[in-house]
Automatic annotation (TrEMBL):
GO cellular component, as recorded: mitochondrion
Entries under Pfam families matching the protein: NDUF_B8
Keywords for this protein: Membrane, Transmembrane, Transmembrane helix
Protein name (record): Jg7732 protein
TM ranges: 129-146
Length: 172
């Protein structure tokens, strides 16, 4: 019975066509052209069409500068996933994202387990640098100051109480 299934899978024209379609799509990635941004919009009509394409209003739509190579892709605010409302009923709650919501161009570095540019730091960057450099230079200053002040028990030559033979475990 297993042999019949194998023969049927190999010699069936429809199965071969389906297998070829799967391999062809895996190699060609047939959906990439749908995600490719269009050319940079130069006229107001092109801007309106691009805004509609990305489900934005014309007032919200602002493309990246033309020299960056993003085409008509919109410049979205840098809001990390961790800064979004956790109680909002998202279509994709794991990613905190709704259906047809455009991604940020740097979305691969924004996430709950990654960088969040809109997060408020506990300490300012100046405060962090002050503590870091203070620790490094303080350690170096302590090392330089204590370099000539060795501490520990000083060792001198062994002193014997009286003159005369002393019994050692080795011969002189």
């Amino acid at each position: 019975m297993a042999l019949n299934l194998v023969k049927k899978a190999i010699f069936d024209r429809k199965a071969v066509r389906n297998l070829a379609a799967v391999y062809c799509n895996a190699v060609r990635n047939h959906w990439n052209y749908q995600y490719k941004p269009g050319p940079y919009p130069k006229t107001p009509e092109e801007r309106a069409a691009a805004a509609k394409k990305y489900c934005l209003t014309i007032e919200e739509y602002q493309p990246y500068p033309e020299d960056l190579g993003y085409g008509d892709y919109p410049k979205l605010p840098d809001i990390g996933t961790d800064s979004k409302d956790p109680y909002y009923p998202y279509d994709l709650p794991d990613m905190k994202r709704n259906f047809n919501e455009p991604f940020n161009a740097s979305a691969e570095i924004f996430g709950e387990d990654r960088y969040d540019p809109s997060a408020k730091r506990r300490f300012s960057l100046t405060h962090q640098w002050t503590w870091f450099l203070g620790t490094i230079f303080g350690s170096f200053a302590l090392y330089a100051w204590l370099e000539n002040h060795k501490f520990g028990r000083p060792v001198t030559l062994k002193q014997y109480p009286n003159e005369g033979p002393h019994y050692l475990f080795c011969e002189k």
